[in-house]
Amino acid sequence: MLEQLFGKTKKFKDADEAVAEVQRIYNENIKILADGFSAFANGKANDTKIKAYYPFLRFNHTKANRVDSRRSYGYVSKEGAYETTLTRPDIFGHYYREQLKLLLQNHDIQIEVGTSKTSIPIHFALGEHFHVEQDLTEEQVAQIPYVFDQPDLAILDDQIPNGTYVVKQGEPYPLALFTAPRVDLSVLRLRHYTGTDAAHFQNYVIFTNYQFYIDEFIKICHQTMTQTDKADLRKERSEYTAFIEPGNKITANKNIENNKEQDSGGTPLRRMPQMPAYHLKRVDGSGITMVNIGVGPSNAKTITDHIAVLRPHAWIMLGHCAGLRNSQNMGDYVLAHGYLREDHILDRDLHPSIPIPALSEIQVALEKAVEKVTGLEGFDLKKIMRTGTVATIDDRNWELRPIYHQNKRLSQSRAIALDMESGTIAANGFRFRVPYGTLLCVSDKPLHGQLKLPGMAESFYRKRVEQHLQIGLLTMALLRETGTERLHSRKLRSFDEVAFQ
Q1: Element holding 470 (H helix, E strand)
Q2: 501 touches 73 (CB < 8 A)
Q3: DSSP for 83-95?
Q4: Can you list the domains of the chain with their CATH numbers?
Q5: pLDDT digits (tens, 9 = 90+) for 452-491
Q6: Against a cut of 0.90, is the pTM above it?
């Protein structure tokens, strides 16, 4: 029956109607797989493979004109056919509507919605709360690939965001950075790595490499949910609907009447996930997500690879760094305006010779937040903050290298600080068109004999974490006020871009 639908589409000039059709097609196909798997798990034999397919969007454009050239997305730059597969309308419905409304505003076109020829793997169809092999016999597990489609690595790569995808003659141009299978993979991986569902992630993301920041964030968020007179975010207390912790534990905001969010104990965790995530939610998704990514560029790449499919409006790094200048003091801030990428984790996707520019909207918001929280302005701000290049490396024990070798590149680059995550997070933001920024705090000065040792570190953390986090939270509020039209800078778009943000 599904084979008969290939090539047949419905045309729309209304974004809401188009997304409703996407939802219908997706739900019908997921039901085919869910029903088929239920029968399979109950011992029913299958002579033929059970298949279902993603919905897709297409439009043909013969006039590459657009209404508003100030925005960095929402239009196509040349004539032709454009397509993308879609998934999880329950998570991405609002995003799809926004993108389609912009296309319809900028071009006099009709949106076509139909059933693609890209099959839905059974693991993706059953979702992040279902363990496919859990209740099956060994014989049934062995039969799964013969009955259901499995994930295909050939269509799970990042050629489109990397700018290496080549459109063959007669094929449509891509409409979005990520295909449906790539999105589905990341949705499942986010649950695995962070302990929370992708649906809870907010559009403004803070990464940190220390649990101290998470502890302070948890305290602030619980106050925001319950104590109107003491909450650090009390001016916005009615705008945040819930706080989500690993295991999808939900604490609803008691300050909101008829709040649709309800308290829930979630799923008890046997152990904390590798990179736990915490979400301060708003109805429109413009709240704040905070993730403890741990230490190292590998973790930084892993988590940003997956959060990128959610199309956040900004992510920033708040963490600690080694100060490289004798004029710096412990506890000083470093606002990165450039990155020396010695992490090597993204070399095959984004060559180190490619510059990662500072984004003015992020830089201005971070500096304003430092001024407001510390009370220092103008020239006085230089007492506690420096702007410059941050070196990101892949060796935590870099201090043990010979002194000449460790200093040469750092000196030539004029780096003022060194860490293990910021360059990777910024580079992946650049690669995936997600606005990025970095504000670090100097916690040691190895080149000047001030090493990070237990007693010194504990004292430093207690003094600086609360202030640093308040700066990060205020930065996200300022970015939200800036607006997505300005925030998604044209600096992040290449000369041959997809239409979707």
Answers
A1: helix 454-482
A2: yes
A3: EEE---HHHHHHH
A4: 2-189 (3.30.1730.10), 194-492 (3.40.50.1580)
A5: 555 555 555 666 889 999 999 999 999 999 999 899 988 8
A6: yes
